[in-house]
Amino acid sequence: MKQTPAKELILNILVEKSYTKQKVYDNTLEVFNSIKDVLKEICVDYNKQLKKVDKRLLLEYKDRGSFESELKVAADLLIFNMHTNIFEFDKDHNIWKTSYVKETPLSTYCGLINIYNFLSDSVKYDREDDLGYLIGRIYINKDKHYFVEGKRQLGFLYTNFGQEIIDKETIHKIIESAILYCLDFDLLVPPYDSVKVTSVANMKDRINKSKTQTGKRLGFQFYYEHDSTENI
């Protein structure tokens, strides 16, 4: 078949961009599997001391499939989710200002691992209306360089993109930062006016299924919370 300009362009894109994305996917999956290992290690390590205090404080790890895992910490549930697609950053993102990105082609293609915080009772009692929060996002590229966007500790401790390669020690620190944030992120009572009127049917449903909508910041989206140290 004749080599046309379109064919040459397609082949170049497949060899360069698509190969890079596949490498990013492989790296992200490897990191996610390491996250699972570290979560299990944290459970074993912490529980050695917690069981001496109260068995109800024990951490619990659960593997929820190839791309999701969870860690129960007291009343909180941390869910780690790997997205199966590869992402590029919009041109307004600060990442484009780094010397690493300017000097390294295709370095901005990244895999994404999300960290969510839910109340453990929301899952336990199947309260589908309850709120969860995205507290962190881990980005990994073709060279296994990384950075983290997130709340408080997660948002400003891990921002040296292009300078460090993610490893189990780093993953351990990221997970502990996420745990600390959740433990310091308290449940607020819903505003009185938002719950003062209800129907008999709703009350029966709520009593039977514990369906009162619950969240640590009821009624506010994650990105509306203002924090002097946040990065999202």
Describe the structure.
By secondary structure, the chain is of the alpha+beta class. It has one domain. The protein contains 7 helices and 6 strands, in the order αβββαβαββαααα. It has helices spanning 5-50, 99-103, 120-124, 153-156, 168-183, 192-195, 200-209; strands at 60-63, 68-73, 76-82, 111-119, 133-140, 146-150. Strands 1-2-3-4-5-6 form a 6-stranded antiparallel sheet. The longest helix has 46 residues, at 5-50. It is globular, with a radius of gyration of 21 Å. The termini are far apart.
The number of helices is 7
H/E element sequence: HEEEHEHEEHHHH
Q: Please tell me what the overall shape is.
A: globular
Portion of residues in beta strands equals 15-25%
Spans with pLDDT under 50 lasting ≥5 residues?
A: 218-232
Give the beta-strand count: 6
Quote the average pLDDT: 83
> Residue share in helices?
25-40%
Placed side by side, the strands forming the largest sheet appear as 1-2-3-4-5-6
Gyration radius, in Å: 21 Å
Q: N- to C-terminal separation? A: 50 Å
Describe the main β-sheet briefly. 6 strands, antiparallel
